[in-house]
Amino acid sequence: MLRLLYFRLVIPVLRSVDQPEIVARGVFVGLALGMTPTVGIQLYTVFFVWWFCRYVVGWHFSLIIAMGWSWLSNPLTMIPLYYLYYITGRILLLDFDGEQDFETFSRMMAEKLTLEGGVWETVVEVFHFMLEQVGTSILVGFIPYSLGLGVLGYWLSFKFATRYAEARKKRLAGSRAKDNNTSSSDIK
After folding, report:
1. DSSP single-letter state for residue 35
2. What is the pTM of this model?
3. Burial annotation 84-106 (CB, 10 A radius, 16+ → b, else e)
4. Which of 105, 108, 120, 164 has the smallest C-beta neighbourhood within 10 Å, fewest atoms?
5. How many CB atoms lie within 10 A of CB 177?
6. Measuring CA to CA, which residue among 55, 105, 68 is closest to residue 84?
């Protein structure tokens, strides 16, 4: 699993032909939007934000990298993340009455995730459940993770992409110098 994550998330950051700033922005947007409680529509959200930023605001980031990083939250990690957001939101709101344990929370979420009416109906039902039952806590609790991981991802990816780009430039310069030396000695 770690190998798959490395090849799907880290390698594209390192090998991107975009400038490190654009790559890092993509990681920031992907993590920030991926850590929102929008599993199921996060790729659409990333695409809309990319389109808006690119064509309306004039701010560029890598769409492919943003989409890849937004999938850190996915249907497999959704219930644990939503519970983490729920608990964090309760703490931030100083609301300690009637807290649910993980088993109760996950059972309630699983009941809503039946997909009997289709994907869109399930998304609407889960969203409705979150607003009625645990909404405020989740809507407050995701903010530190979304912003915190987005900023951390930006900083780390910018650092790594910059180092990788500099190393690639040195390798290419060394390779060109070696080729020039070889071709010069062939002429003599």
Report:
1. T
2. 0.77
3. bbbbbbbeeeeeeeeebeeeebb
4. 120
5. 10
6. 105
